[in-house]
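dumping the sequnces here before i forget
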Amino acid sequence: MSDLTKLTLEAALAGMAAGDFSSEELTKAHIDACMDGADLNAFITTTFEDAIESAKASDARRKSGEVGLLEGAPLGVKDLFCTEGVKTTAGSKILGDFAPPYESSVTANMKADGMVMLGKLNLDEFAMGSSNETSHYGPVINPWRKGEDLVPGGSSGGSAAAVGADMCLGATATDTGGSIRQPASFTGTVGIKPTYGRCSRWGVVAFASSLDQAGPIAKTVKDSAILLESMAGYDPKDSTSLNIDVPKWSESCGKSVKGLRIGIPKEYSIDGMPGEIQSLWDQGIAWMKDAGAEIVPITLPHTKYALPAYYVVAPAEASSNLARYDGMRYGLRVDGKDLTDTYDRTRTEGFGKEVRRRIMIGTYVLSAGYYDAYYLRAQKVRTRIVQDFENAWQTCDAILTPTAPSAPFAVGRKLNDPVKMYLNDIFTVTTNLAGLPGISVPAGLDADGLPLGLQIIGKALDEDTVFKAASALEKAAGFTAKPEKWWK
Amino acid sequence: MSQPKGAVSAEDVKKIARLSRLHVESDRLQPLAEDLNGILAWIEQLNEVDVEGVEPMTSAVDMAAPMRKDEISDGDKRNDILKNAPKKDDGFFVVPRSVE
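..and the predicted 3d for all of it:
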């Protein structure tokens, strides 16, 4: 039998439907790939035995004619989603051996659709990072390599590396400032963050609640659409969940983009961006034009303020969300001389350096005397960014930009310069602030043979157009490169 | 690097750490202050934006807060709730003494 791990999710689902192979065979092939790839450190917890049981159960369901949207597909879950009875760490020491007695709504949807879960994927601690180096469980290594170990991006680095290395057919991820799209760009995979409110946040460990949104990382645009169809949907347990239907996005993939107006924001040409990224962007513009789209120059004048606004809003919300980790009800407790000392010790030992830094920034910008100068001002700048997009939608239907300002970089290179690390999200963070959908599509390789992605941003709730434009881009790019399998 | 308005001092870091329920060793206060000042100086760019008359954005989605009936929909899960407790006894969380 040919290598089942090379299949796309779409092809694997079709293969099982045709009876070419069972979920059990497919799952076992992926478990072998996961074991081969152990050195990439993509998983924090593996659930291989349970996966084989679920695969057998899926095969039995299929025989009885019960076939869900993801029936029998071996997938990975970012370790930010609570999974019933399976250790959930958020990449942090502070959660200890926390095993949630409940399931996140997103993974519950996927399990109801027949997902086979291979395990829990590594991530930056509490999803705070752009390189997957802040994880308490060690950095994830990018399957793409250049003489030295490279980062897979972050925070969904484990999800991106596992999909990029064919260890799973797709994975869940989350995106607060670019945490789905930047790692997708770094690993030659597709990642979409849908409109805020599409996927329930219930049971997803909170970072910055007004920005956090779940989405998939996948091998193709269509695979990402299939996964998102399963993940999305109204959930009364999340008060910001949108009570609207989930369209058949997979049917939008491959549709013509003739006459679609694609905006090109001039502010996304930034100083210090490698020439290769600019030329890939130009190439993307030409591809969209060839596919029949109309190219429209647009302006998003507040783009440069998006990241500084984000680094007020996100830490502020994080400092509030992470106040719950007090060592009393679950997770780590480090005993001190009294209650306060126990809190201090638990949180100081339990949180890593970057998380502590962000909690302190958040606490500072929310503190008396600074709230108006920092937090309130950032919220107003956020409104300005939303207005930029509203103006742009007067003349275009979707926006094309690079996903990240660089190719994957070496492990350790940017770890000690927070602002430099934050700049990774310069092209992705605007959509989080505005709540818009954005997708990264692998579009080419740089001179070192490392993958680079392009991003399509759409109007709120218009994932339809995003998938259409992204598949046009994917088709034109014809990106088939895979990393050489050096890790076995 | 230019110092932001009201640059954070080592003393401020101590105060922020206390509010955050984090412990910072005294020899780390000054380096951390410099760290925070670097980030805050970068955030100062926001002062260039004209926000006169602009409403702060408080929600990422354009929707009214949903209302629901005030009724019990879940419960009777004491063992589930206590399952992950670092210390428990006889159906209760055990915590350090907080009132003398």
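Chain B has three helices and two strands.
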